[in-house]
Amino acid sequence: MINKKPDSFFKDSKTMTDEELVYKISSSQNSLLFSTLYDRYSKKVYNKCYSFTKNEEEAKDLTQDVFLKLFIKLHTFKGNSKFSTWLYAFTYNFCINYLKRDFGKKMDNLSDTMENHKHHLSEDEDINDEQLFEIKVSKLEKILNTIDPEDKAILLLKYQDEVSVKDLQTILNVGESAVKMRLKRAKIKVVQAHNKMKP
Questions:
Q1: How far is residue 46's CA from residue 68's CA, in Å, rounded to a whole number?
Q2: What's the fold here for domain 104-199?
Q3: Helix (H) / strand (E) containing 138
Q4: H or E element at residue 70
Q5: Where residue 130 falls among pLDDT bands split at 50, 70, 90?
């Protein structure tokens, strides 16, 4: 009877929603419950880490680090967006910090500051989504690896993870106009980088 209890407990955890699971883990610090969350999302988190590092070993290490930090920070999830949305933003932020810490100088050389881009951001200039979609996937992948990690992250959240502007406002803790400006700036950088590439 005692041996069956953990099994049934684990089985119950598999039917919980993400939000229910997070609440239970936060209140109990139960590592068995956390392993259910890990099983649900480790592959997706790994893929997102790999999209930043392009190195399998680094991506594996980062995935482990993300989940270690997640276990500690899980109580900060307030349920204002879907858990998956929050987790992807959490993962991207972790990857950005990792890149900036280990490749700070390299990233500084690759990315321009917003001040340097002010002359590109006139009010009437805009990049529509069709212009992004016209760029071939292989080229887009190369371009995303050359732009600032924050710009890459917001584009991946919006277009790969299909996070709405409203949810982006919540997870980035900024207003709607700030989200739209960040998206606009990131799209401009992608199109500019594409225009500079050899055909």
A1: 14
A2: Arc Repressor Mutant, subunit A (1.10.10)
A3: helix 137-144
A4: helix 56-73
A5: low
